[in-house]
From TrEMBL:
TM stretches of this protein: none
Single GO MF annotation: electron transfer activity
Protein name: Cytochrome c domain-containing protein
InterPro entries (alphabetical): Cyt_c-like_dom (IPR009056)
Highest taxon listed in the record's lineage: Bacteria
Leader peptide range in chain numbering: none
Origin species: Sorangium cellulosum
Keywords: Heme, Iron, Metal-binding
Length: 806
């Protein structure tokens, strides 16, 4: 393969036919060269805009491995590869001259030097006119590393139909309109892109190839184990092992691939910190969590797949944890939580990760149990809603059985049937003593034999389910906000309610927003430090009455101001703890109803480079005749959360119901101590839908009536000093009473007449409207003053955002 004078890339048939995962050949070490000119050019780059427009201008000028080796660019393949909708892949790395990827045998970590370039080309199988299946180049991705992962430069080159060249996505791919760039709504490159191609040239059958946009790239790569933005370059990945060893799942591992580490050492791509490296210096997956070891081969195989496909999101720095902190305990990276993982663990949605084992060994019962596990459901179906009926199972409780599924691995259009099989076998392969309630019996020979049969039965069920639901599905995503800023609902100019226009944001609001309340204790699953200082005000419930000492470490007390409480309990479900709408809930809405959840730091409270500048849309010279006065943006926010948001949570009532079950459900009373009972909270969320301040209205109505006696219970404990009843409740909604009383009654006195009035009376409605406005202003002030400065509203059940998890 070579570049002709006109700039096209020409691939001789013999080179293309010789391609494996390691290129067209294995170059000898003496051929290893460098390219200092390109090193300097890439080192000077500062952003995407500096990347070469065509692939021919990069290191990747050929698929001929010898040509690339002479320029210092070498092929590699990971031990545990990422699945990408069955695309074939070819990976190359170029380390700057005189440098190397350094491995420290003591820490078992790699350091990738800045300015290292990684190239990954994706191929799709195509039936050519002669009936032979060959592979066509679709895209080539580039990552240029920097000292900090967040400064890495990355992009995607999309190959033309003739495969004679590739152009950078985001610079104008349409030859008829080369100046029309592919951009997100905010004007930045590069969005999702769909490239059509002829999959069968004998029939003319067309297919679409999905190229992920920049936000998808960031979502996956931000969890890079080497903290370099690069995936697939870890000690476990570089040291290739034979199939069947260490959970390796690639069909064939050739001898040249097994020698990969020695080859990269010989090329100078990899070196040790001080000593001569050998494969023995590199870790083994099965020993990554010592003293814990895998229960059996099925658990090792599960960890192996996760190492390549799941761990970049499901680790403490990954997207999964960033979007849902309660997933921190499900660390899928090597050395994480998989080996010996408790199979009775329940997710934050209240549903179990795995089904309960049947009371006796029965292969049909085992097969029918499989869909009851949350992890299995997340991997077996493409995006969509399903009920137990789709698995031909009886429906005893459809509301609990229903589930909205954003399938894993993320950002794939179809389902990798290996994954549901691995998950099903992982659960079923655990030896159990059925005479003792199904408890684990790892050393019982009879239990081990039954477990092998159970795993085979589970595999058959998983394969059946997956083959029924492999439909292709890809939803173009754009979670950015328009720039210059455009409010999500421009009808605010004419339809904003008069009662909201009449309200004002006062100094009393500003003062209350800064008041911090002690609201019970964090959910107890973190290692709370014992050296935190005593709070300025020690309340009686914080002290053990028998010893006079703190009931729990001072650091375990859950503190929040009103805005943090309201944001964490009401807003974060969809908008996320960072306010950027990078959540499973937002993706679910996009996939069903097409709704786009707002990113607050980029939209109303943006732009990021000038926080809160967009607030001027509602007050000041930019607002013109539609000026809402001081606090105008707060009024807009309240309107959007009380009726101005018209999107639905699904295309059908069933989809709406399943959305609530998965993304709201029990967390509405566990995220913060909100004084609502679970049934009332669920009803409030379902009734309010996207107009989430309807939940605040329900809370303030509870403050008004004390129908469930949360206020009376709190007052009785405060008067008597007996806090046992409240503290015995893991949720303890009573601890939210003082804060909500202050919010609901700010400039809004609660009289005895109002307490006794009918809920439908105009007087109660007016009082609740003012209370809701207060709650909305609290959330607004938190986002204006804290969220834009990176202050997270930590939920009560997510102590891991502040402290190490136990």
């Amino acid at each position: 393969m070579e570049v002709d004078p006109g700039g096209d890339i020409v691939t001789p048939r013999e080179v293309g036919d010789a391609l494996t995962e390691l290129g067209s050949c294995i170059p000898d070490a003496e051929l290893a060269g460098w390219d200092e000119e390109l090193d300097e050019r890439f080192a000077a780059m500062r952003s995407f805009e500096d990347l070469p427009i065509t692939l021919q201008e990069t290191d990747f000028v050929s698929l001929d491995a010898e040509v690339l080796a002479r320029r210092g660019t070498f092929a590699y393949a990971p031990t545990y590869p990422l699945w990408s909708d069955d695309a074939a892949k070819l990976r190359f790395v170029h380390v700057p001259a005189g440098q190397a990827i350094t491995y420290d045998p003591e820490t078992k970590r790699l350091r990738i030097p800045p300015n290292t370039r990684f190239y990954k080309t994706f191929f799709r199988a195509v039936v050519e006119p002669d009936g032979v299946t060959r592979y066509r180049k679709m895209e080539t991705r580039i990552i240029v590393t920097r000292e900090r992962a967040e400064d890495a430069i990355f992009g995607t080159y999309v190959w033309n139909a003739e495969e004679t060249g590739a152009k950078l996505l985001g610079t104008g791919l349409d030859p008829a309109s080369p100046d029309s760039r592919e951009l997100y709504l905010n004007g930045e490159p590069f969005p999702d892109y769909v490239r059509p191609y002829t999959a069968d040239e004998t029939t003319g059958a067309l297919q679409s190839y999905a190229v992920p946009g920049a936000t998808r790239c960031v979502a996956c790569h931000s969890g890079s184990e080497s903290e370099s933005f690069v995936l697939g370059i870890t000690p476990f990945q570089l040291h290739r092992r034979p199939r069947g060893e260490g959970g390796v799942y690639t069909p064939d591992v050739l001898a040249d691939e097994l020698n990969q580490l020695e080859r990269l050492l010989a090329y100078g791509v990899v070196r040790g910190t001080s000593t001569t490296l050998t494969p023995a210096d590199f870790p083994k997956l099965e020993e990554s969590a010592l003293p814990r070891r895998p229960r059996n081969a099925d658990e090792l195989n599960m960890q192996a797949y996760m190492a390549g496909n799941c761990a970049h999101c499901h680790n403490p720095r990954g997207y999964a944890v960033a979007s849902k902190a309660t997933l921190r305990g499900l660390d899928m990276s090597p050395g994480g939580s998989i080996f010996g993982f408790p199979l009775n663990t329940t997710g934050s949605d209240g549903l179990p990760y795995f089904p309960s084992p049947p009371s006796s060994f029965d292969e049909l019962a085992i097969q029918n149990s499989i869909p009851g596990g949350g992890i299995y459901r997340r991997v077996v179906l493409p995006t969509g809603a399903w009920t137990l009926r789709e698995f031909d199972l009886p429906v005893e409780n459809e509301e609990i059985g229903s589930f909205f599924n954003l399938h894993m691995p993320m950002h794939t259009a179809s389902v990798d049937c290996r994954l549901p099989i691995l998950v099903a076998r992982w659960w079923a392969s655990v030896p159990r003593d059925y005479e003792r309630g199904g408890q684990e019996a790892p050393a019982d020979p009879e239990a081990i034999e039954l477990a092998m049969r159970a795993a085979d039965a589970a595999e058959a069920r998983a394969l059946h389910d997956c083959e029924q639901h492999r439909a292709i599905g890809w939803v173009l995503e754009d979670t950015t906000e328009r720039y210059p800023y455009v409010p999500r609902n421009i009808d605010w100019k004419t339809k904003l309610d008069d009662w909201i226009r009449a309200e004002e944001v006062t100094s009393e609001h500003e003062a209350l927003a800064k008041k911090v309340y002690a609201q019970g204790f964090f959910a107890p699953h973190c290692a709370f430090p014992g050296d935190a200082p005593e709070p300025d005000t020690v309340e009686p419930w914080m002290i053990n009455p028998g010893t006079g000492r703190p009931l729990q470490p001072w650091s375990a007390i859950y503190w929040a101001n009103p805005g943090e409480h309201i944001y964490a309990g009401i807003c974060a479900n969809c908008h996320g703890i960072y306010g950027d709408a990078q959540t499973g809930a937002s993706r679910a809405l996009r996939a069903t109803s097409g709704a786009r959840v707002a990113s607050f730091p980029d939209g109303l409270f943006g732009p990021r480079w000038a926080p809160n500048e967009n607030l001027a849309t509602f007050h000041g010279p930019d607002a013109g005749e539609h000026d809402l006065g001081p606090g105008g943006a707060a009024k807009y926010l309240v309107w959007m959360a009380t009726g101005g948001t018209t999107v639905s949570f699904g295309r059908t009532p069933e989809e709406e119901r399943t959305f609530f079950n998965v993304f709201v459900n029990n967390r509405i009373v566990t995220a913060v101590p909100m004084p609502l009972d679970l049934a009332s909270a669920k009803e409030a969320f379902k009734r309010s839908k996207a107009n989430m301040l309807g939940v605040a209205r329900a809370v303030c109505d509870e403050i008004r009536t004390d129908a469930h006696r949360f206020g009376a219970t709190y007052d009785a404990a405060a008067a008597s000093g007996d806090w046992g009843l409240i503290l015995s409740n893991a949720v303890a909604p009573e601890f939210g009473v003082p804060m909500w009383r202050d919010v609901c009654t700010l400039g809004n006195p609660l009289t005895d007449d109002l307490r006794a009035a009918d809920a439908s009376s105009p007087e109660v409605d007016a009082w609740l409207r003012r209370a809701v406005f207060n709650a909305g202003v609290m959330a607004y002030l938190y986002m204006r003053d804290e969220l834009t400065n990176g202050v997270i509203a930590v939920p009560r059940d997510a102590c891991e955002l502040k402290f190490p998890r136990e």
